[in-house]
Amino acid sequence: MKTILLLLHDDGGQxxxxxxxxxxxxxxxxxxxxxxxxxMPTMVVSDALGDAGFGxxxxxxxxxxxxxxxxxxxxxxxxxxxxxxxxxxGEVAPCLRDEAALADLIVVNRQLExxxxxxxxxxxxxxxxxxxxxxxxxxxxxxxxDLDRALIAWDGSTASAAALRAAVALLxxxxxxxxxxxxxxxxxxxAEAAAAYLSRYDIHAExxxxxxxxxxxxDVLFERVSSGHFGYVVMGGFGHHRVAxxxxxxxxxxxxxxxxxxxxxxx
Length: 267
Hints:
With 267 residues, the chain is of the alpha/beta class. It is 41% helix and 22% strand. It is built from nine helices and ten strands. The protein has a ten-stranded mixed sheet, with helices on both faces. The radius of gyration is 19 Å and the shape is globular.
């Protein structure tokens, strides 16, 4: 895992994304690809304001992102990472997908509370499903990426196995790795098999089995993630093949909405 693709756009989550991507790039001794997206005004705005109003809003957006580039490039030259900068104009998801062909990991937010555009929660799901490249979705208030303490959410599915395999490069840098298996495990690949797989990479994980006792899987996982004992969580993104727009139910939706720590997602 060497090439990190970072979404840059002048919004409330940009600083968190940047800090996470810098921490990743340094730890992995990789290369950071900075993609600054100028977002096109929506068709609703275009219809309401006409061509002149649309053009004015687009020009303002271009100016804002030009200033954003100038500001961030001045910072990046002083960071101890290899990086390059690319510009794009359009919807965020297609722009990222177009740049992701040679990326190993994409950094976005999990959700921006005060900024509905771009919809980061939907964006994370779109990227995981359509690019098959892992996504790190970070909270908007993240100031430092803690890679020392990892939690793996294990349900024995192909999606959770894919996430575990994809995260090996990060897990190698962790001081503590915990695999949590929640609820009935009688009909799925056991968490001990996941731990054995990691041990072959010299990653020695602890395994926790947690009974539901009437609780929901998502609530149990959220409580564990919120304990303050972990720096990030690894989990499979969406266990079933469904259209991307319908993928935001259950545990994944809840974690992308509320998780206090970054989420490493793979599908």
